[in-house]
Amino acid sequence: MKRIAIAGVSAALAALATVGAAGSASAAAPVGAGDGGKPTGIECQQFGIGVLQDTGVLSGVAANGLEWPIGSGDYLPFSTVLQIHRTDPGTANVVLKAYADVLLPGADVDGAIDAACPA
After folding, report:
1. DSSP result, 73-89
2. Strand, coil or helix: 110
């Protein structure tokens, strides 16, 4: 089951390579954000969720968590992954790029990741 989570992230990053910022295209300001726009980190979180939804793997990743560091066999609960996106987009940026480097060698997805999750 843990390998499904990694495959899900791989599929999500593959979507980044082919469609760029697919997850952020449909992202809207969350309820309660107010007139000032989105809370810090919410765009990063919505980006990741959108990519997982667009590739059909959100439920698998949500159920199994995300392996970090890659290859360690340790999994972060999905709630922790979401919290990191909201509170520390720079860390989310590093994790997304690490997965891209391993799962999509040579793919140019850094721009899409940087736009959604600034380092």
Report:
1. S-EE-HHHHHHHHHH-H
2. helix
Higher pLDDT, 76 or 26: 76
Cα–Cα distance measured from residue 48 to residue 89, given in angstroms and rounded to the nearest whole number: 11
Give CA–CA dist 99/19, Å, rounded. Answer: 17
Contact between 76 and 82 under an 8 Å Cβ cutoff? The reply is: no
Extract the tokens encoding 37: 């726009």
Under 8 Å between Cβ of 74 and 2: no
pLDDT for the residue numbered 28: 56
Question: Is-contact 55 13, C-beta < 8 A?
Answer: no
Neighbouring residues of 33: CB distance < 8 A, sequence distance ≥ 6: 39, 42
CA distances to 39, 81, 104 from 87, rounded to whole Å, are: 10, 10, 26
Rounded Cα distance, 57 and 119, in Å: 25
CA 95 to chain centre: 8
